Give the backbone structure.
Amino acid sequence: MASLVPAPKSGYRGRLAPSPTGYLHVGHARTFWTAWLRAREAGGSLVMRMEDLDLERSKPVFAEAAMDDLHWLGIRWIEGPDKDGPYGPYVQSKRRAYYLAAWRRLLRKGRLFPCKCSRKDLEAALGAPHESALPGAPGSASHGKIEPLDDEPIYPGTCRQNLWRAPQLPGPTASSIEMPDGINWRYRVRKGEVVEFEDLNLGPQRFVAGVDFGDFVVWRKDGGPSYQLACVADDSSMRITEVVRGADLLKSTARQILLYRTMGLTPPAFYHCKLVVDHHGRRLAKRHDVLSLRSLRQRGFTPMNILGADLPVEP
Ligand SMILES: [Zn+2]
């Protein structure tokens, strides 16, 4: 039987990157469908990458459900956890070596510093405790990511002066002794550095480091990369040429572009989709169970019903 996925005719490489922390909802369906259409229209290929770095909340049952629901919608990919391919593994929890390499590269460039601030320290320094805006707070992740992403508050700079300097050791010894675990590592932004990019859907975007976002976490104390670092390491090593994702990640894109710049890598193109909202105008979250693809499927909705529905989006 012929494959449902034609061989790629162009170098376009897009990706689907669900987090298996819950069932996908209609908003995810829209975004992933857009990613699929753009890859197909470009005659390129689409990669499935499971973003399961939140080890506590990620569940194999949700990963299976995500792939099954997307398949049911008619979305196809040629590389992924269920297919393998030349740029695997396609599961983030198995890609630690890539993240360590990226962390080391940033460290060498002199852009990282270790940060000892606890959540309490940050709350105190920022004045008002604002649970949902702090790393690791429950409910702070809009797309089931492990950290607040675009909501990460501007870092007050407490540990900034401890800029880490590479040890003056000869040869490969230097890299083998460097391990990031046990402390948070932040990327030190240059205050006022402008990040501009042309979003293929939303048009020109402009962010200013130190104003729109501060020094951000790239490695977490508990021993894993942040979303920003993992995303850049994966998109570059998987040769992704265009990233299609929700508009809630625009500021993350600005941070990620800084990581690409520092590492001397060319960022992919970006296409951010407006977010679907509920009838109160609130962004959909995994709590909107009735709008999960799982539940809609069980109630007899078809892919056409879901993709063709006139859903409200953020302005
Ligand atoms: Zn600190």
The pocket of zinc ion is lined by residues 115-117, 158-159 (CB under 6 Å). The mean pLDDT is 86. The CA atoms of residues 146 and 227 lie 7 Å apart.
